[in-house]
Amino acid sequence: MDARLTEEHQRVQETARDFIESEGGMELVRRQLNGEDVVDRLWDELAELDYTAITVPLEHGGFGEGMVYLSALLEAAGRYALPGPLPETAAFAAPLISDLGNEEQKSAYLPAIADGNCKVSVAVYDDETEPLPESVQLRAAPVETNDGTGYRLDGTKTLVPYGGDADTVIVAARTRDSQGYDGISLFLVDTAHDAVDAKQLDSLDWVRPMYELTFDNLTVGPDALLGPLHGGGGPLVDAVDRYSVAAIAMLTGAADRAVELSSEYGNEREQYGQPIGMFQAVKHRAADMWIDMQSARSLVYYASWALDNDEPDAGRAVAATKSHAADRLHRVFADDMKNHGGMGFTWDHDAHIYLKQAKSWRNFLGSPEAYRDRLIESRLAESE
Amino acid sequence: MDFSYTDAQESFRDELRVWLEENLPDGWLDGERELPSDDDERLAFLRDWQRTLADGDWAGIHWPEAYGGRGASLVEQTIYREEMARVNAPPQVNVIGINLVGPTLIEAGTEEQKSRFVPNILSGEEIWCQGYSEPEAGSDVASLTTRAERNGDEWVINGQKIWTSYAHNADWCLLVTRTDSSGEKHEGLTVLLVDMNQEGVETDPIHQANDDRSFNQVYFNDAITTSDLVLGEVDEGWDIVMTLSAYEHAMTSIYTIEQRYLDLLEYCKTETRGGTPLIEKPEIRQQLADFDARIQAAKVSHYRNVSKQIETGRPGPEGSMDLVVSDELRIDLLNFAVDVQGPATSLWENGDAAFDETTGYLRSYGSWIAAGTGDIQRNIIGERVLGLPKDKKSKTSHRSE
What we know:
Chain A is α+β, with helices and mostly antiparallel strands. Chain A has helices at about 5-20, 25-35, 40-50, 65-80, 85-100, 105-115, 235-270, 280-310, 315-340, 340-345, 350-360, 370-384; strands spanning about 120-125, 140-145, 150-160, 170-175, 185-190, 195-200, 210-220, 225, 270, 275. In chain A, β9 (about 270) and β10 form a beta hairpin. The relative contact order of chain A is 0.11. The radius of gyration of chain B is 22 Å and the shape is globular. The chains are: A alpha+beta, B alpha+beta. At the A-B interface, α7, β10, α8, α9 and α12 of A face α7, α8, α9 and α11 of B.
């Protein structure tokens, strides 16, 4: 029993912070907010530091590390709301391709991911208001191609994060009449294809813009099918679990920064002849922010470790992480806004950046309500 | 990072489990867990259990081996708490002696004090209480005014303490007194070990909101102790207060809360409303899941605090988070346990036989107040962890200022 990050994890966090600071820290996000796409150039730098290689297996040019390592890094990155599809690529895509891919697919994608030549995103939603798995409706119809049986995709996916930056998207589609997670198949689709069109949506979180991806009678070969035909639902759930924990790791780092901002301001800002942090209304709110942030961190660390070690309670830990953190971390950012008074409500203050990121994640790939329901299912299954 | 237990830690757990199966009171594991309702019989029962624990070396496991403990590591203490909670073990009647007074005596006492008192704490031969709070010194405990005056080889004590748990059963009191009021309030305090069985000491139980009487007012009227029973230095008792407080903040009750949650889960699986099991109702599931998540978070936070304490060698202000999180989780959980009873919420003893929710729900508010209220814990976090400016506080014990 040792619940601490190792020295190596701590070093990774320090290096990441030093690097992002050297790139301007929050200036990166500000540039992205102002409409400049900083992702491409930043991605090359992240690849230089091997961050894109962390979860790629050793035999494909990566580090072969798991969620604990990645979460430690993302926590540091989250302080700066670092733009780019790193959680999508490193938590969702790389482990999924490693688990499900055939040798050709692994050789085609994994070294490219590790080297920073392949940013991956996730295209699951057909409908912006339907949750998973009902929202997966796109049909992939079998068609004969020169290379064997391929698939035709005709329709539109929505809520694809960084859809315009991604080189590849993993698309969830139905390959037979089915409901739920049954009958879902996963496809690797390159966005450069002429039949793929990306349109940026008016997103709440401008740092992490959502896209609509239209497939206009796109035909893909047999090599696009990732994993078993009709059997992509289960692996999709596992990949979403890793991805959600990674996202909460970033939000935890952001919450850590928000607590710092509130603490600094509580000392600096004076009203009624004293620093506002002396008032218990502010002091106690800051203490609660810290408690919620630490609780989220605890859940992220345990869920990451449980996922890496295939612990029997891993699913329950993930459900706890997403359901507990989603609303409570949002409250941390809202409290940071409150502690800063009028300044906290300005565009120039960072509070709104974090707040929107948390809200954008709240229901994405599973609402807290849905995860709580799943948590009880897991709990009942464990006790039987 | 590794959340698994070593083989040695697992065999520690197994050893305790086997011992509990053999030594818990008859019928306890089968659910017969009623304590005698008569006060004297209950005290005898709990003293018996305390002695049984001591005989098996399962009282004060964190004490050094030289003093009859096991020198158990922090992780083993965590396992111990988890296993004791799992079987709903009877409370330790000398919990204050074992968890707080004993370790403080071992750390700060003279050799004579240690050999005189320490062995009798483990066995429950002598029950201890701690005399801290006063009617006018609650959260602001350093402003206390119970006086001790030197008279030759003796100290003469006059004043009043309040909220003193177990004082009505206690043989000895670790008493914080004021011996000098000329300086700042944290100065001029002296800790005395005081025999409770003397004419000058009178205890008066407080009737609590949960209809229990485990807290007391204690009156000292020319009570006497001897100068060899000063713990630490005269006028430097605040150091002792802080030593004991660190032991107090390093405790966690998350495992008993987890056990209550598991009991409640079981209740919701078997109880029906309108023919539907409670567990199938969406609003019940949502609530239970939220408790589950909060318990998971609190447990891991405790592991993280323990791991940090192993590294630094002392408990940090993070213990305040364990306290406030547990206290508020307990309040919410036991409120829910009462609420799901439906209209029977209006009745007192309406719960599952394993525990009485109503009493627990009421008592949970007392827990929030004890050992520093939730508000005080938030001050500690705000000031010592986040570095926010301290409240304006009186520096002396003179209340008119």
